């Protein structure tokens, strides 16, 4: 069963205190860094700096760099898939239900904005896109077209399933980042504005995904037949795509 927007938000809010976060970054010799200092790129602190000195930022570990790179990679892939799903759904759905045009266009516009955001972030930080891009493109278009042909309820069930998984996925990333920041702050380190901005971006996009989930349920996603099978298969596919895109 899909998690409600309220439940997802509650899970996120209980995950960790809401303060700031993000940064550090994808600092590797061949990469630009997500700086912990506003507006400029900064090398890791010199080893002679005292731990926890005021105003100091802790360098990212390799595990943290890998997490941030995989997070940007999978988010960019997911948003590409979302734009393709809505693009494929729009024509059949609007032809059969003209009153849904504003809703379909609204959701597509938000997905296009999300994709633009992550395109910029992976380019800025030189994160490679997933190698599975062509496969996800094909599958997303097929999923969008196939569910739209099945009817309005199936198309909305597709949105319900996808956004349930994506909402949980963004919550998981936010939770991990907040825990990272909390750890840094407990050690006396600061978190820079760039990472704070990244968490804000993830929260905004998560909220918009959950808005899509609400729209889908309001437009009879639960009436799709068979709802349990359709949403179950799509949600499993989303989880598999997320797992693969984080790694490949
Ligand atoms: Fe999105
Ligand atoms: Fe969405």
UniProtKB/TrEMBL annotation:
Keyword terms of this UniProt record: Iron, Membrane, Metal-binding, Mitochondrion, Mitochondrion inner membrane, Monooxygenase, Oxidoreductase, Ubiquinone, Ubiquinone biosynthesis
Pathway(s) the chain acts in: Cofactor biosynthesis; ubiquinone biosynthesis
MF terms (GO), sorted A to Z: 3-demethoxyubiquinol 3-hydroxylase activity; metal ion binding; oxidoreductase activity, acting on paired donors, with incorporation or reduction of molecular oxygen, NAD(P)H as one donor, and incorporation of one atom of oxygen
Top-level lineage group: Eukaryota
Region Disordered, annotated ranges: 36-61
Membrane association type: Peripheral membrane protein
Residues at which Fe cation 2 binds: 111, 163, 209, 212
CDD domains named among the record's database cross-references: DMQH (cd01042)
Pfam families with a match to the protein in the record: COQ7
Enzyme's top EC category: oxidoreductase
Cofactor: Fe cation
Subcellular location: Mitochondrion inner membrane
Catalytic activity: a 5-methoxy-2-methyl-3-(all-trans-polyprenyl)benzene-1,4-diol + AH2 + O2 = a 3-demethylubiquinol + A + H2O
One GO term describing the cellular component: extrinsic component of mitochondrial inner membrane
Cofactor remark: Binds 2 iron ions per subunit.
Keyword Membrane carried by entry: yes
Any one Gene Ontology BP term: ubiquinone biosynthetic process
Binding site for Fe cation 1: 79, 111, 114, 209
EC code(s) of this entry: 1.14.99.60
Complex and partners: Component of a multi-subunit COQ enzyme complex, composed of at least COQ3, COQ4, COQ5, COQ6, COQ7 and COQ9.
Family in the record: Belongs to the COQ7 family.
HAMAP family referenced in this protein's UniProt entry, alphabetically: COQ7
Record function comment: Catalyzes the hydroxylation of 2-polyprenyl-3-methyl-6-methoxy-1,4-benzoquinol (DMQH2) during ubiquinone biosynthesis. Has also a structural role in the COQ enzyme complex, stabilizing other COQ polypeptides.
Stated name of the protein: 5-demethoxyubiquinone hydroxylase, mitochondrial
Gene: COQ7
């Amino acid at each position: 069963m899909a998690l409600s927007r309220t439940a997802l938000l509650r899970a996120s809010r209980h995950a960790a205190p809401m303060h700031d976060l993000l940064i550090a970054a994808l600092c590797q010799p061949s990469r630009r860094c997500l700086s912990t200092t506003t507006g400029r790129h900064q090398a890791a602190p010199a080893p002679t700096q005292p731990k926890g000195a005021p105003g100091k930022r802790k360098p990212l570990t390799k595990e943290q760099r890998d997490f941030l790179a995989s997070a940007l990679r999978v988010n960019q892939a997911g948003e590409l898939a979302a734009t393709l799903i809505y693009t494929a759904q729009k024509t059949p759905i609007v032809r059969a239900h003209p009153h849904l045009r504003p809703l379909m266009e609204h959701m597509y516009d938000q997905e296009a904005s999300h994709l633009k955001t992550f395109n910029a972030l992976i380019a800025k930080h030189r994160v490679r896109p997933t190698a599975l891009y062509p496969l996800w493109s094909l599958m997303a278009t097929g999923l969008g077209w196939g569910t739209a042909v099945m009817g309005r309820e199936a198309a909305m069930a597709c949105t319900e399933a996808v956004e349930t998984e994506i909402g949980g996925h963004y919550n998981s990333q936010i939770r991990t980042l907040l825990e990272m920041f909390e750890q840094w702050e407990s050690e006396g380190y600061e978190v820079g504005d760039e990472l704070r901005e990244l968490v804000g971006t993830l929260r905004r996009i998560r909220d918009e995904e959950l808005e899509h989930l609400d729209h889908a349920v309001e437009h009879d996603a639960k009436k799709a037949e068979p709802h349990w099978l359709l949403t179950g298969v799509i949600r499993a596919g989303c989880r598999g795509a997320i797992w693969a895109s984080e790694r490949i």
